[in-house]
């Protein structure tokens, strides 16, 4: 007795009717079920209700800037980048490309849709059924704001807040300083190899994620150093893509209230 094969379900987020039509034709020829959303809210509802196996995103045609859209998806559905394909232009937004690199999201050029989508989606769905990318949680092992000040010593100027995070694979040394006459914070840091304690983390994507999505993204320099300037919000995390199949996440404290209290 032959068992009926379950058809993979793929969600398309695009406001471009031509793109949706072309993708539908390809998906049906591959034997896949097709779900379509033209806006982010609709796509999130379908993700919750239908639990698709993969998602094809057309961020240029969405109702949010492309890079922010990817950050919002990652915030709402953490495992989504591992089962997504993003359609890009020949000259795509550099910030979007940085985000795709940081989250290891596959991409297909819109002008090569018929040539590239089939093999990319087939390979993606095979990978979805295998072990996924691992996210390690880094431990906060030092916070200078929790250290007792020296008796009788008062500072006329706020001092930078020092944070030290550690995981099994890396150490992140952070310094945060509230900019004068501003709500923005300057964050500088360095990522070190946990075992060797050496800056062997060059070119690593570092992402700051807020409640509403992506806040900022940079890459480390040759010494594993990086620099951000941003307006803080509650619930922020620092995400470090430390390897091809894993990343490290560090939950940042409520920097806004703490820095101003200093």
Protein architecture, described:
It contains 6 helices and 15 strands. By secondary structure, it is α/β, with parallel strands linked by helices. Strand 14 and strand 15 form a beta hairpin. Helix 1 packs across helix 5. About 3% of the residues have low confidence.
Shape annotation: elongated
CATH architect. name of the largest domain: 3-Layer(aba) Sandwich
Strand content: 25-35%
Radius of gyration: 21 Å
Count the E strands. 15
N-to-C SSE series? EHEHEHEHEHEEEEEEEEEEH
User: Might you state the CATH topology name of the largest domain?
Assistant: Rossmann fold
Helix content: 25-40%
Instruction: Specify the structural class.
Output: alpha/beta
Tell me the span between the first and last alpha carbons. Answer: 72 Å
How would you state the average pLDDT, rounded?
79
Task: Spell out the blueprint of helices and strands.
Elements: E1 9-13, H1 17-29, E2 33-37, H2 40-50, E3 54-57, H3 66-76, E4 84-88, H4 94-102, E5 106-109, H5 113-128, E6 134-137, E7 139-143, E8 161-166, E9 170-178, E10 185-193, E11 205-210, E12 213-219, E13 225-230, E14 237-240, E15 246-251, H6 255-261
Parallel strand pairs: 1-2, 1-3, 3-4, 4-5, 6-15
Antiparallel strand pairs: 7-8, 8-9, 9-10, 10-13, 11-12, 11-14, 14-15
Helix pairs in contact: 1-5, 3-4
